[in-house]
Amino acid sequence: MSAVVVENVSKQYQIGHLHRATTFREALVNIAKRPFAGDRRNLETIWALKDVNLKAEGGEVVGIIGRNGAGKSTLLKVLSKITYPTSGRVKVTGRIASLLEVGTGFHSELTGRENIYLNGSILGMRKKEIDAKLDAIIDFGGVERFIDTPIKRFSSGMRLRLGFAVAAHLDPDVLLVDEVLAVGDVEFQKKCLDTMDSLHTGGRTVLFVSHNLAAIENLCPRSVWIDEGKVRMDGESKDVIKAYLGTFAGAGKRGLDLRNIATRGGSGEIKFTALEFFGLDGQPLKVIRSGDNLVLRLHYMSEAPVKGPHFGVQIYSDLGTRITSLSTWAAGLDIPEVIDKEGYVDLVIDFLNLMPGRYYLSLWLKSVGATAYDVLDHCAAFDVEAADFYGSGKGIDGRFGIIFLPCRWKMQGMQAGGTEQEFK
Amino acid sequence: MSEYLSEIWQYRELFYFLIWRDVKVRYKQTLLGAAWAVIQPFCTMIVFTLFFRNMANMPSDGIPYPIFTYSALIPWTYLSQAITNAGNSLVASSNLFTKVYFPRVAIPASSAFSGLVDFAIASTVLLGMMVYYEFTPRWTLLLWPLLLIPLVMLALGIGMIFAALNVKYRDVRYALPFVTQIWLFLTPIIYPTSIIPEQFRPLLALNPLVGIIEGFRATLFANRTMDWGMFAISMIMTTTIFIAGNVYFRKTERIFADIV
Questions:
Q1: Partners of residue B172 in chain A, C-beta under 8 Å
Q2: What predicted TM-score, i.e. pTM, was given to this entire model?
Q3: Side-chain half-sphere of B209: how many Cα atoms within 13 Å?
Q4: Number of A:B CB contacts under 8 A?
Q5: Is B27 on the interface with A (CB under 8 A)?
Q6: Residues B71, B52: contact at Cβ < 8 Å?
Q7: Cβ of A31 under 8 Å from any chain B Cβ?
Q8: pLDDT per residue over B168-221, tens digit each?
Q9: Structurally, how many domains does chain A consist of?
Q10: Same domain assignment for residues A49 and A13
């Protein structure tokens, strides 16, 4: 018998809060305006999930991948009964625990110990069970010294460790995990991944949503790719991830349209219109790999001539760390005036020394006097794939950090197996 | 229905921990701690005594006015706080029920039940006042906790309706204090039921709190006769509100996480 069965599940959300009454007053006004229309007429709806079918056998560990807003989290919410499907059926056999965030229900006035009980019972643990595991939880979280201190005195890292410690001691038949690893320091992430790894042996069914494709490939033999609310592909993780990454190159080929991004800052005299990724050879990139060369083409548009603009690009890690800021200003370039109404600038990166993972771009256009013309925060994402940069067959793993350095090792006074390695 | 109840039973420990959290948090980092449970009804009693007894000469059926009004203020304070806390509880805990599944009723219910601690503390002061005014406690005093059943049912019913409405319409939060304020004056707390003309009393009893509060008073004082007709009307109203609250909550809880 399958542990998780999802049959023809669809979930519709109503969007456009402009029209939905959120106060009595608005509800009354709506009724007064259109006494017979109800308040359905102007509602826009979207399908977060559409006819999703999915089965997971007992003991299977399944990764769920897809872009932001593809419906991954909605699927987990439907599975965990937090929200109900508009149509279709969900059946989960056995005790279920959902980890959509770490430390759900923590109360800052309560002590660490008290919060373990609260959080544990919210996640479905029995008091007896928490009593028995209390020492192990405290030990795992590494917060013994502060366990009787209100957690408002905890650092965010300590809270996180405590929350994960409770979660790691859950013993459900079916575990749903949503991107909880995308936070915290590297060492802690590693600990979490190790714990996740040990889930294999527990014989429980795990559905694991993550953007961390390396982790998915490591932990989940099978993956499901959700795209626009539908199951686009279901199969061996390696194949699914490859197919999924392939679509990002496709997006690069067409270029990313930036004209309709609503959440932009700046005066708008000159604006970004599109972003394209190329190789140095001018060919659109299928995949971006560690160590590749890369050209970012920034298309812009201006209505009137603009004096002295500077172009800037910032790259962020998927944890939100700013890795670098690149700009025409810092490079000492001087652009006296932009006359053409449309054009582009190319940012040429000869050597992309980013580890595999997902990165975000922010773009800005400012004048020397710091007038912001156009500011786009986190407007584009790109995935860097692993490459066998050192030619060793070992690859470069996203878990090793954010950047890597071209380097070589020289051996002295020992018998090295290989020859001295030169950087190409 | 039985599924609903068995699920609540299954999650009983969560109910317990949520109540425990509410009680624990309420008096953390406060100067006077649990004394607040007494201060509010006690000070209200002093104010009422000064204004309504000493200045307006309000009758109190031959019972010393302070104890007459305090005995009603205990259930009243419980009820008004329980429906205010329960009414705001879902919105305040939206970070919980959008992340984890458990019976949603646990949230308003724990708010309503945690107020019972205050009720118990305030009741001990009532015992002190009985000694001071030289009332001999009667066996009927044992019925005092029994009357908590309809009182809590009423608080749950109303609290669940307001909690569910509040998820959908945020101005419910502003309506709550207003509702409790009006309700105070529609209930024989400041005044005795006896000043209401007899023919209007069944109408008064439609306010379910009337029968309950008269019941609380009747357990204390020997000379009071219980108006059973009025009490019955109040019990029917209480049960109706309790059922209506559960039905409405059940009907809407499926979409809480989508609209909050």
A1: 24
A2: 0.72
A3: 21
A4: 75
A5: no
A6: no
A7: no
A8: 888 888 889 999 999 999 999 999 988 888 888 888 889 999 999 999 999 888
A9: 2
A10: yes
